Structure formats: C-alpha cells, structure tokens
Amino acid sequence: MSDPGAAPAAVTPAEGTPAAPLLDVDGLTVRLPIEGIHRPVLRDVSFSLRPGEAFGLVGESGSGKSMTARAIDRLLPPGAEVTGSIRFDGRDVSSLAGAALRQYRGQVAMIFQDPRAHTNPVRRIGDFMTEALRTNMSVPASQARARAVDMLGQVGIEDGERRLRQYPHQLSGGMLQRVMIAAALLTQPRLLLADEPTTALDVTTQAEVMAILDDLRREFGLTMLFITHDLELAAAICDRTAVMYAGQIVEIRRSSLLHDDPLHPYTAALAGARPDIGQTAHRLRAIPGRPLSAFEAPQDECAFAPRCPHARDICLAAVPELVEIGGGLSRCARTQELRGKLQVSADA
Amino acid sequence: MPETAAAGAPAPDTNGTAALEVAGLRKEFGPLVAVDDVSFGIPEAGSLAIVGESGSGKTTIARMIVGLERPTTGTITACGHDRSRPPRSARDRRRRGREVQIVFQDPYTSLDPRQSAEATIDEVLRLHHGWPAGRRRARIAELIDLVGLDQRQARALPRALSGGQRQRVAIARALAAEPRILILDESVAALDVSIQAQVLNLLADIRDSTRVSYILISHDLAVVRQLTDQAIVLHRGKVVERGPTARVLDDPQDPYTQRLRASVPRPGWKPRRRALAGAGEEPGIP
Amino acid sequence: MSAAVPVAVRSTTRGVRAVGMLRATGPAGIASAIVIAVAIFMAVFGTLLAPYDPITPNLSLAWVGPVGGHLLGYDFEGRDVLSRLIVGARTSMLGPLAVVIGSMTAGTLLAVTAAWRGGALDAFISSGLDVLFAFPGILLAVLAAAVFGAGLVAAAIALSIAYMPYVARVLRGAALKERSQPYVAALEVQGASSTSICLRHLIPNVMPLIVAQATILFGYAMVDLAAISFLGLGVQPPEPNWGVMISENQDGIPQGYPLPALAACVCIVVVVIAFNILGERLFEQAMGAPR
Questions:
Q1: Residue-wise over B251-276: b if at least 16 C-beta within 10 A, else e?
Q2: pLDDT digits (tens, 9 = 90+) for A122-155
Q3: Domain boundary assignment for chain C
Q4: Would you say residue A160 lies in a domain?
C-alpha cells in the first residue's frame, strides 16, 4: 500500500514544502517547578505538521511527549516557563487569550488516555458531547444532539439516541473512548491531539479504535498528533514519527522506515528491546539504566550517551544538533557513520 | 498433533509431578459467571501463560489460586495440597504462602509506602522462618542482589524508587517466601518498554536459577511468547484454546485467538474496522 | 506516570518526619502549634507557675479590677483570675484529652474491624454507629450526670461514646481504601495474620488521618466539656476550669465586671481555634499525601 494520507512523500521539515505547516513548533523549551525548583521537561523541541498529516510522537516515561501535547493545547500546569514558539496556522499560540483562545481550542481537540478521568460521572453523555457546540458555537440544542448522534454512528455506536441519555459508568472503556473521539470531532477541529488514546484498552478494542481514528482522520482531512509509547502502533497509522528521549526529539522519520532503517541508537534500542511475538529470544536486548527526564539527563552532552552502546568522545562533547540525513532527522552525533548499522536484526 | 479447544481437558504434564493443578474451576459473582469450568496444570519449573482481555476471568483465576477469592466450585491443588477452601489455621496460611506467591501489576500500590525494601523482605522472612537477625540480613542481601538492586535502593522508601525498581522489590518480596509457583499478574504491563525488557530478562534468570514455575497473566502476546512454554486463552471465563505458546500464537485455531493475534500492531499492520459496532465488546462495566 | 525525581533518601525517623509535617502546615499551622504547646505547658506545670493562690477565696477582694501584680484582676470570690486560668488549664485540657483518646481508640478499632471483615459485621457495626449518631454529646453527658452524678469522668466517657461514630465514619472510609491496596493483598498471600496486617500496616498508613482527626476532635471536645462544666455537670468548684469560670463569673458581666468571665472565654476560644486550624491543615496533608 502506498504512503497513506494527504501528506506528500518527502519528510523534510517545514521549509521548502509546498503547503504551509498547520502546526509549527520551534525551539520549544518548558521548565516546570518540581519540588520548588524550575527544571526543564522539554528541551528545544521542534517539528512541523503539514495539513492532513498523521504524526506520531513516541517515547517512554520522562520523554516529554505528553508535555508537548499539553503545551500545544495550552494545558501546562501553573508556574510553567515556556520559551520558543508554537504557531498554529501561522499565529502564535502562547499569546492567545479570552475569545481567541477559546476559538483556538475549538480548532484543536484532545483525546486523553483515560476517558473516565476526563468525563464528569454525574452528567449524561449527551450533555457532555454537545456542550462545546452549544456554548462556544451557539448551535441550538436539538441540532447539537442530532450531530452528536450522527458522529456516534461514525465511530461505530449505532444506538446513539439511547447512548446520549446514558452516564459514563454505563459504558465500557472502549465505548467511552469512542464517545470521546466522537465528542472531539464534533467541533470540527483541524488538529487532533491523541495522548495514548488506546493504552488503557484491550488489544482487540485498541485495533478497532485505531481503525476508527484512522478512517475518520482521512475522511475529515484532520491533522493528527498521535502520542504513544508503542513504536509499532505509531508506525501503523502515522505518516511520520518522532522519537523523544529526555525531553528532546532524537529522531523524525517516515514511519515505515523507522523499524528497518533507524537513524538514532535510541530508536533502534527501543525497537530491539521489545519481545518478538514471532519467536522467543534467549534474552531480550535490554537497554541498561532507565529512561530519564529532561532534568535528570546530562545537560551538556548527548542525553542518551550514558546508556548508548555506540557512545564515543564526540557524544560527550556537546548536545548534538538535529541534523538531516536520509530523508529524516537525527540527533545523534555519529549518525552519519552509524547509518545502516543500527537496524534491528532478526536473529535471537 | 495440534491441541483441541476442548475446554475441560487439562494440559498434559510434560515432566513429573504437577506443581499446580486446577480442575473445573468456577466463580460466580451473583448472576455473573466470571470463570466457567477452567482446568489446567503446570509441571515443576514449567511456565504457563493465561491470556485474555478484560472480563476474561484471568485475574479472578489468579486471585482464587492465591486465596484472595474463593471458588464457587472446582479444585485447586498446589504442591500436592488442596487449597480450594480457606486455610484452617495460621500455620496453614503461612504454608500456602510458601507454595504460591504473586507479583501484582501496579508497582505504585503493591508496596507498603512506609516500608523500605529491606524491611519488607525482613518481615516476610520473619513470618516464615525463625532465623536470627544475622541470617536474615544475609538472605536479604542475596535477594536484593538477585533482583538487581543495590544497597542504597534497598534502604530507600518506595517513593524514592522508579516503577521498575519497585517491581523488583515486589519480586524479591515474593521470592523471599521461596515459593514453588510464582504468579505474575500483568507484572510488566505498567513498565516502560526498556525497563520491561530488563525485568523479563530478570524473570528468565530467576527461573533458570531457582526452577520456580511461572504463571504469567497477560494480554501482551509478545511478552507471553518471551516468557512461557504453554498457554491457555480465556474468553468470557472459558478456555477457548490451549497448547504450547509458540503453536497458539503462530497457528491459532480458535476464532477469538485468531482475532487477538491479528490485533497486535507490528510493522506493516493496518487496523481495520469490523462490520458490527459494539459486537464482541467486553461486557460493560464496572 | 512520572520518572522518579532524584531525591536523597528521605529521613525515616519519626521526629524528623513530624517536624516536616508541621512545617508544611504553613504559618497559621505553626502559630496554632505554638498556642497549643503553651496550653499544654500550662496544663502540666500550672500549679508551679501560678503567681497567686487560685483556690482560697477572699470575698473582700471580689471583682477588683487589674491592679498591682494581678493582671486580670479578681473573680467573684476574690481569687486571682490569671492564676485560676493557668491552673485551670489542667482540667480544661485533660478532659478533652481523655475524650479524644477514648473516642479515637474505640472508633478506630471499630472502623478497622468493619473495613477489614466487611460483609455482615461491617453492616452491623455501621448500623450500631448510626444509632449513636442520633445522640448529641451534651445530651449523653447530661444523661450520664443524672445516672452517675456530676463530674469530669462521667462527662468525658459520655462524650467519648458520642464522638465515636464520627471517628469511625472517617476512618472506615480510609481503612477500606487502604485495605483494597495490592500491598495488603500481598501480605495476605504471604500468610500474615489479619491482626498483624492491621496493626503493622493498615493503621500506620492511616495515621496521618488519625492524628488530624484527633486534633480536630480535641477542639470540639473542649467546647462541649466547657459547656458541660458551665452547666455544672462537669468539673465541680472550687476546682479551676475555664468552663466553670465562665459560669461562676457570668453575673459579673451585667454588673460591669466582665473580665473574669471573658478571660476564660477567650482562653477556650483561642485554644479551640488553634486545634481546629492545626487539625484541618494536618487533615489536608493526610488526604493529599503522595505515595
């Protein structure tokens, strides 16, 4: 199957592409107060999303992937210090306030990992789904409900009228997540931020929900930022995928190439650490140490160097820059010489 | 010859006495049948995966085996002793603790937040053995080392440890009782991928050195493949397929197992919607 | 899900932890703690600190205002008010202490037993406590006085019984939550006895809540006991007690000598507020504690 979605085949960053990026994150650095002291959680994060593109953001604990989504949606915790820029449709997001901010939020929808934590248990599904339409977009209640029922049908919930009258606890996790997706799409957003939307779901439900997300994204021409810890899952529905480690982007690559031709040792290590469903290895290729947050990792050298099997002196000299190579971007100081030697081999 | 999907037939012992034998297990919660006529066995040093999604009954089975839940009918025999009914005495209870142990899923709530790893393991040792302090200290050091922690981490409170480190403490605590059977209830599901790999390697090492039998409860088929020899697949409380793990995953016979296998993301995988909405969803709530 | 923040291994000694908890209650909490400390100090060393004889009456000095070394003047029987206040701290603090110890112990035991065993026993205990809820503390104290005669002991026991359901209700919820944690299940699987799990793990983990609850309860007990003593059913004169002092000096207010009664009032109010503030701050900490 050829490269899916509206995105063109090239994976070079925003400069030089035909369409202007819908979302442009440039040099985003976020510091949060942790135990009283401001510490970095995101360091110099830069990437662009073209309209209609599905972009994956993959990382482990402390990588900053969720924080990135929150920064985009202006949901950072109080006391956060933000430098760098986030531009949506050319407009700087951090300067928005009041009505402009509400309008922006109407264009950017977010789906969270745990739908139950983000729904009010004492309000009916119908109320919750139509709230944004009724209050922010002045849609009359009956029309809002009709659109809600229609959208529920799109996500595979047939008896929408009945579901609108139910409460969240009456729906299973998978159903509720479908409802969340439907609710997110009701306001006709242009950008969808999905933060681990299927992590808490059973694997068969996950497959179903992923299919729904993929279908609807294409149908509505949505741009999607898909956050997950699962490299293979991102590869399945995202055109390009960025890998994050310790608050930095370490690789951006076309998803189909990520597994076979990784550019950064961390990507290769992450793919190699997963057990293979097709065979039993004697032992897995574990990465020594543990994933670090931005503030725990060394600040003046490659953040991954302490755990990297390919680290050399050059890696300890300075923080490596994100460089273009082979149609992708890599933040490895030795990316040129390691090219082609990082792929996950099939032998046990 | 491929195993059939006969629900009642227990897996044949491959070598010697069974460490654990479960027959006709059934659990009802009021009108809901969570576990329906489940039977299986594990030999010594064997490993069995219980695969299923939410609502399959896999966690209920684990809880019944360790005594946190009582079976409605059916028998559970571990190390030759029946444990289908509640223990009759404190000695009985402790003895069962030395036969089967469990490591839970959530590293953040499976340790007493006020106890260091050392104190936790010490308490278990004092429960099962009348050893003097010196011997206990030595054993604690052995166990800490076995699970890959250092002295500083052993003395720290859980809140100073990461998820992976806490899970190692939980494993050490379980091993302190020197069980014949260790149940791993989604024990690596909440861990980062790179940490998961470390803990899976650790579990493999432990099995090689102590010959403990594992029961791995998991929805993650790749983890199941890595750690177990035999597998049973549960769907809505019933066993729908059983056999060697490799065969069950490479050549599933039951439609549900096939669907499970087909839902796993891998390079080249494209999710597809099924025709019926809501069909096959796990039974609602809570 | 957060990566572990690099903290030095925190001190596990109880003293250091207690000081930390206190500091976290903020300036209001610390000020309250100081007030309480002063009150306790007076309760313990009162008889040594009182400048004048608090018991012997001298009617010729009745209602005399502040003069010389008598900062608060004389009461209705010519005794130094300040001295009576200082010595009176003892019974004023001791009574509530007894009530708190009684109600917290009984309430906690019932709550933990109900939460641990669940089922019919829990239903039985909860229903029994529901019945007790219906009785206001003061009413029970009046009943006790009628049956056993007036005095601090009877009043304290009556209040302990009346407060028990409040303690049990709060603790039962916390105990249920703790009981459902996997670490408790892990101990059960190890074969530890219910008693040892409850005493060594469950209760210590709800201890912050217990301490907070006890502190809040102390304030309420103080008010109730003051009221009971005011009614003449608690501490008996000539024993100094803040509640009794309000009662016996109340005639002075319309006559233009409000100081003795008001001084006793202020003592009660200040100490009760201090206990309330500290208790609520500790309660917030207990509920918001990170794991």
A1: ebbbebbebbbebbbeeebebebeee
A2: 999 999 888 888 887 788 989 999 999 999 998 8
A3: 26-53+67-287
A4: yes
